[in-house]
Task: structure prediction
Amino acid sequence: MEIVLSILTIIVSIVLVLVVLVQKSKGGGLSSNFSSSNQFMGAPKTADVLEKTTWVLAGTVILLSMVSTKVITSNTQNRQPLQIAAPVDNTEAPDMQSPQPTAVPQLPQAPESTPEPAN
Result:
């Protein structure tokens, strides 16, 4: 659920950025190219639509952020704490009374002859 909310928040944020970039302050920008009059075939001005879209997307980002915070905090409260093992006590000396190896095993020796170089 956390991943779905995160992906939705990212998508809505990217769309919000694109909508804001399309607008220009004081009613210019791309919206002025698409709306030559106040209404076109019964639709309101493009600037009004972009402004309303901006407000809706901003509210959606805020709502998704609050829902994600609630979901994440409820999931962390339901999780079990980690079981950590007790640390090893290395302060005692090793037991010197136990039998120790008597000899180190020897590796086989390589032959002493060297091969003759080929001509």
Summary: The radius of gyration is 37 Å. The chain has three helices and no strands.
